[in-house]
Amino acid sequence: MTAPASPAPPPPAPAPYRGAVERHPRRPLLPFDTGTDPDAVELTGPVFGPADVGEWDADLTRQHPGEPLGERITVTGRILDRTGRPVRGQLVEIWQANAAGRYTHRQDRHPAPLDPNFTGVGRCRTDDRGRYAFTTVRPGAYPLPDESSWRPAHIHFSFFGTAFTQRLVTQMYFPGDPLLPYDQILAAVRDPADRHRLIAAFDHALSLPAGPLAYRWDVVLDGPSATWTEEGR
């Protein structure tokens, strides 16, 4: 009698996502004497525009003279702390590819067309209920530089605290995308619940009447139900 074959070992878990090697620091971090000048750390922080958040910053479809190509969508939700309380006045920034799957960046070599009427960058502040809202176009999928796989449609989100050093970066995905099971970044998020929290929900009520398709995506900044970020919790 032949013994039953032993089950095949499970595939190895993907390594935690660390981003491109070129984006990691190559030199030691610079020390700042915060005791003498507590604002010194801000001197080398990024600057997101020369002015405060403007009227059209949250509407990526109205930042240029012409109409951008692609399916109009709105993305809205709430920014919450670990207890479910709204985070008011939170600076929220997004960046994304255009409808053809290409970023407005000189290093993007994807042979897809650029859209002169779409830059793919927006920002807003949350209101007293912690709500944010963006109007944009649905981003297209694009291949990784080594062409090993395609990235599903996604929007990058950045959340700031009271200083540039208090920054969380993550990505929002769209429900029902057939590329989700093949995405290397999403696969690197080990907990299924964490992966689920990165996928927005289609909101049919907000999509009517005859408006852009709407997606709702709430973000929890910390605690056991925190939304996954690139630097971990």
Report what the structure shows:
It contains 2 helices and 11 strands, in the order E-E-E-E-E-E-E-E-H-H-E-E-E. The longest helix is centred in the last third of the chain and has 6 residues, at 192-197. It is mainly beta and 233 residues long. The chain is globular.
Mean pLDDT figure: 85
Tell me the number of helical segments per DSSP (H or I, 4 or more residues long). Answer: 2
The helix/strand series, from N terminus to C terminus, equals EEEEEEEEHHEEE
State which percent range the strand residues make up.
15-25%
Distance between the termini: 53 Å
What brief labels describe this structure?
233 residues; mainly beta; 5-stranded mixed beta sheet; 4-stranded antiparallel beta sheet; 2 helices; globular
Which secondary structure elements does this structure contain, and how are they paired or packed?
Elements: E1 72-80, E2 91-95, E3 121-125, E4 131-137, E5 142-143, E6 150-151, E7 154-160, E8 167-173, H1 184-187, H2 192-197, E9 201-202, E10 213-216, E11 219-220
Parallel strand pairs: 1-10, 1-11
Antiparallel strand pairs: 1-4, 2-3, 2-7, 5-6, 7-8, 9-10
Short description:
The protein is mostly beta strands and 233 residues long. It contains two helices and eleven strands.
